[in-house]
Design goal:
Number of helices: 8
Radius of gyration: 20 Å
Number of strands: 2
Order of helices and strands: HEEHHHHHHH
Largest sheet: 2 strands, antiparallel
Strand content: under 5%
Strand order of the largest sheet: 1-2
Distance between the termini: 32 Å
Length: 251
């Protein structure tokens, strides 16, 4: 298998890893939340981390007190860790999907860091080690910043990926800011939107972005561009001479 073939195979497996990361994460939330009986899980008012809480009873986090009892907490904590592992694997396999620029490399390293932080969330449930769990939860912001940097890196070569990534990162960062404000103030700054809703606003855009990039990577490796082209950029995306010149100037 030549270099192009190996690259395409890496992109396909990396794309599947990104997609699987999100799918298993959402399935785990549905399965784990469905097991809550007394009380029932509230997707708007409960933290995602409550699904991985290993105890039953009242739990206080940043002034927000809620009663938690998650019988299938092991499923959720395993999902947190699997999310991190798959994110790291996908990021490494898709390393050459992005331009060879400092901006893109910074974004890729942040993806790896986000993966490590996700693993930390699963290893340290909120009621076992809140300090480590809180550090791990910064993967929400780290992931959005990674998307922002990678989107800026392809602003000349792939405008669609650029603008969708910008939108994703902005929504995630705004959600992260509001989520942090709600924790400090003890209540949500947006009426009707609880801490769980704000946390999902901060994290879900990144999950959806991974699905989109995963599908793009698979399509690019399997489609007409799979053999490469002298008219493409480092990611295999055809670009005009003007765009290529602007891309080089932006390095």
């Amino acid at each position: 298998m030549n270099a192009v073939g190996r690259r395409n195979r890496a992109w396909i497996w990396g794309g599947f890893a990104f997609i699987a990361t999100t799918l298993q994460y959402f399935v785990a939330q549905v399965v784990t939340s469905a097991a809550w009986k007394d009380p029932s899980y509230n997707w708007n008012r409960n933290y995602i981390s409550d699904l991985g809480n290993t105890a039953c009873g009242d739990f206080s986090l940043a002034g927000h007190v809620s009663r938690v009892c998650s019988p299938k907490h092991g499923v959720m904590n395993a999902s947190f860790m699997l999310s991190g592992v798959l994110l790291i694997i996908g990021a490494l396999l898709l390393w050459h999907l992005w331009p060879r620029t400092k901006l893109a490399r910074a974004g890729e390293f942040l993806l790896l860091l986000a993966g490590l932080l996700k693993i930390m969330v699963g290893l340290a449930p909120e009621n076992r080690n809140l300090s480590l769990h809180t550090i791990g939860a910064t993967n929400l912001v780290i992931g959005s910043v990674a998307v922002l940097l990678l989107s800026l890196a392809v602003r000349h070569s792939h405008p669609v990926v650029h603008w969708l990534g910008i939108l994703t990162s902005v929504v995630g960062l705004v959600g992260g800011t509001l989520f942090t404000m709600s924790q400090r103030a003890g209540h949500s700054p947006i009426p009707g939107l609880g801490v769980g809703g704000l946390e999902r606003l901060a994290g879900y855009p990144f999950n959806l972005w991974m699905v989109g990039i995963g599908l793009l990577a698979i399509a690019r490796a399997s489609g007409p561009l799979r053999s490469g082209s002298h008219t493409g950029d480092a990611t295999g995306v055809p670009v005009s001479p003007e765009a290529r010149h602007a891309h080089r100037a932006g390095k």
